[in-house]
Design brief:
mainly beta; 46% strand; seven-stranded mixed β-sheet; single chain; 11 strands; 128 residues
C-alpha cells in the first residue's frame, strides 16, 4: 500500500514562502495523478492544485494562481508545492494525495480521479 509522508509546513509571515514536500515511502510503479488539498479553519476541504500523471498538465485554485506551483521529482518519487506571497487566508492543514490512474491528461477529482492515498496533513500558518 502506498504511504505518503509530508514535510515543510510551519509558521510564516504574510508575503513569505514555504515549500511542502510529499514523498512516497516505497517504490511506486503505477501511474498517479497527484494533488494538494487544504482545509482552513471553519471551511470545507478544497483542492489547491493537482498534476496529471504525465506531469504535463496542472490545475490551480483561483485563489492561489500565480503564487503556488506544483512540481515533482520522479527519481525521488516526491511531489512539491512551492508557495509564494503567502496570505493569512492560506492558513490551514495541507494534505497531499495521489490517485492511481491509467489516464495521463488530467487530475481534477470532479473528472473521476479517486484520491485515495493521502499524506498525514501538515499545518501551514500565515500570521504576523
Amino acid at each position: 500500500q502506498l504511504r505518503l509522508v509530508e514535510s515543510g509546513g510551519g509558521l510564516v509571515q504574510p508575503g513569505g514562502s514555504l515549500r511542502l514536500s510529499c514523498a512516497a515511502s516505497e517504490f511506486t510503479s503505477r501511474y498517479y495523478a497527484t494533488g494538494w488539498f487544504r482545509q482552513a479553519p471553519g471551511k470545507e476541504r478544497e483542492v489547491v492544485s493537482c498534476m496529471s500523471s504525465s506531469g504535463r498538465s496542472t490545475d490551480y485554485a483561483d485563489s492561489v494562481k500565480g503564487r503556488f506551483t506544483i512540481s515533482r521529482d520522479i527519481p525521488k518519487n516526491t511531489v512539491y508545492l512551492q508557495m509564494e506571497n503567502l496570505k493569512p487566508e492560506d492558513t490551514g492543514i495541507y494534505y497531499c494525495a495521489w490517485a492511481a490512474t491509467s489516464r495521463a491528461s488530467d487530475c481534477r477529482p470532479e473528472l473521476g480521479y479517486d484520491y485515495k492515498y493521502w499524506g498525514q496533513g501538515i499545518q501551514v500558518t500565515v500570521s504576523s
